[in-house]
Amino acid sequence: MAHMTVQEAIDQALAEEMARDPSVLLLGEGVATKRRALVDAFGAERVRNTPLAEGIIAGTAVGAAATGLRPVIDLLFAPFLCYAMDELVNSAGKLRYLSGGQFSFPLVTMAMTGAGWGVGAQHNHNVEAWFAHAPGLKVVMPASVADFKGLLKAAIRDQNPVLFFIDIGLAYTSGDIPDGEHLVPLGQAVVRRPGEAVTLISYAKTVAVCEQAAQTLAGQGISAEVIDLRTLKPLDEASILASVRKTGRAVIVHEASRSGGIGAEVAATIGEHAYDALKAPVLRLAGPDAPAPASYPLEQAFVPQPDAVVAAVKRLLG
Amino acid sequence: MSVNTYDGRVQDLLQTMLLIRAYEERAAALQAESGVPGTCTSVGQEASAVGVVAALGADDLILTNHRSAGHLLARGADPGRLLAEVMGRRAGYCKGKSGSLHISAKELGVILTSTIVGGELALATGVGLSQKMLKRPGVVVCFFGDGAACEGRFHESLNLAAVWQLPILYVCENNQWQAFVHRRETMLGDSIASWATPYGIDSATVDGNDVEQVRALATEALDSIRASGRPFLLETRTYRLRGHFEPDDQAYVDPDELAAWRARDPLPRLQARLLESGQLDARALSAMESDAQRRIDAAVAFAIDSPYPAIDELVTDVYA
Ligand SMILES: Cc1ncc(C[n+]2csc(CCOP(=O)(O)OP(=O)(O)O)c2C)c(N)n1
Ligand SMILES: [Mg+2]
Question: Is the CB of B1 under 6 A from ligand 1?
């Protein structure tokens, strides 16, 4: 086991994959400035600062991915993805299909989002569901330091365009990472805490919110299972359904706004495939339909808190 | 079908232009008479497409847009598979999933076609980066319109290609129209080539209705890219003689302007020049014309005979 921060885990994943595969390269505004060690190890050709122009960064990555390179791009903050939507959604997501399978687009787009830094809605906007709705893309949003490394490595090796969201609230936390090659396959959720009476389903920093709530509930004799989705597309429906079939109850928790969010997809999946197992309605706890504010107490209030999760579970258990 | 390369015979350029004209006119007729899906035809722009493609080597790569039939046919595309694609048939270059608007044919080096205006400009830098980093010989040719030059991506693409010294030949086919808006309404001045200068990119403007001049300038531009590793912008001045997308009655087009450009139609111009100089006689010309028509007849028969894709193709090729 090695103890490190999320930033170090990301650096380690990049370094290992760049060493393993000479076609991996890193592009973005300041990547060569901030990740000096990678420049030293792999050269300025493969770790490139770019102009401040997200559309052309993404487009360059898409064109390069189709013709033999395996780019990782750092677009900094998730709202900046709006400038790169065409390249990611219309080109990376569609040109494989529209060309009858002639091209593939192995590329990873990293972006930070979420409460924790007080930077307001033009730097903090959880847009992961937009990309889950776009065909041809995969979406990953890790919750643990080990997953940041393992999922990033798997995303880089994937043959498809992957959106890799980094929750700002987790970006400077630290944790343990297994020694040796550590890969976490895309599309696999994980049970963070086993339980019997209710399933708490989440991803990114609200996984810890659910774990805290489960701890509190345990003190009151209620056994809650916590599932970390890890990959939002493709969604691990089998793990979600297996847990809900066991517990009969589900609360979905995420920071992104409720309407059209990932929680809606998870709830609908449960309703379609495990209705017979449900003992109570499926609940969602999510951020409000509002831009994210900068003010610290407002920003914290945006994120579902453990108390609210506990209260929701108690409501379900009547 | 393999990539067409041209050895310099002007008769070959004419033959290809005749094929493109016959293809485009038949596609428009099929739309009008048989309900085949409409297309963005390149009638009037054949010299621009053929002049540039005839200057390419087998390793060079092409990115194009919605008005791509000329580029594809000049590069050696089978008109039957092209029409099959337009009709959404299985034998099309993209299994019928593209339709006319984003046809690519990797086997011909025609890759990553985008119908998002300016989309191909954003992808071209990535292809250029691959060529450079993987030390592959081919230059990347990116065709786009005067409308695309008004998109921000044009400027982002030129700037990055200049800064990173990417081997890209940008070809702006300035056909004076941006769908239903005349170019005059969208920019001050008449020159798109001059927009390359502040980015540090060399450029040239050519009469896009003169295939030999286009080929000569494209050859020079490619030589300069191969020698310097730097991008180049070639603006071909031409005109969209048919509408934006079939059917289009062109009621919005100034008849005097249209007549003036019809008088400069690249096909009669080249034919007259070749007949006058004795490089071609009337019999040979009419043989070439019937050959083009025969190929298009065969293409139509092939496309109509090709089945539609199986319905389970609906969800294939989404993920690799
Ligand atoms: C981003 C975007 N905006 C608008 C359109 C609709 N559209 C398709 S072609 C076209 C005109 C493009 O003009 P130009 O780039 O000059 O190419 P041309 O059609 O003249 O060959 C427009 C507006 C589109 N496909 N994509
Ligand atoms: Mg135009």
Answer: no
For this structure, is A3 an active site residue?
no
**Together in a domain, A224 and A171:** no
Q: Is B116 in the pocket of ligand 1 (CB under 6 A)?
A: yes
Residue of A nearest to B133 (CA): A45
Q: Across A68-150, where does the E strand assignment appear?
A: 70-77, 107-113, 138-140
Task: Chunk chain B into consecutive blocks of 10 residues (it has 320) and report each block's average pLDDT, rounded to whole numbers.
Answer: 89 98 98 96 98 98 98 98 98 98 98 97 98 98 98 98 98 98 97 98 98 98 98 98 97 98 98 97 97 98 98 98
d(CA B31, CA A268): 43
**Of the residues A130, A153, A177, the one at which a domain ends:** A177
Q: How far is CA B161 from the centre of its chain?
A: 21
- Nearest residue in A to B117, CA atom: A86
Domain range spanning residue A161?
2-177
Report yes or no on A58 lying in a domain: yes
| Pocket residue to mutate for ligand 1, from B178, B185, B186, most atoms within 8 A of Cβ | B178
Residue with tokens 């040239």: B204
- The domain limits of chain B are 10-303
Can the peptide bond before residue B268 be classed as cis, meaning omega within 30 degrees of 0?
no
Q: How far apart are CA B225 and CA A271, in angstroms?
A: 59
Of A203, A221, A224, A204, whose CA–CA distance to A212 is shortest?
Answer: A224
Q: Are residues A125 and A7 in the same domain?
A: yes
- Which pLDDT belongs to residue B1? 59
Distance between CA B193 and CA B37 in Å, rounded?
34
- In the reported structure, the alpha carbon of residue B172 is separated from the centroid of ligand 1 by a whole-number distance in angstroms of 13
- Tokens 């079908």 sit on residue: B1
Q: Which CATH superfamily is domain B10-303 in?
A: Thiamin diphosphate (ThDP)-binding fold, Pyr/PP domains (3.40.50.970)
- How far apart (Å, rounded) are the C-alpha atoms in residues A254 and A215? 18
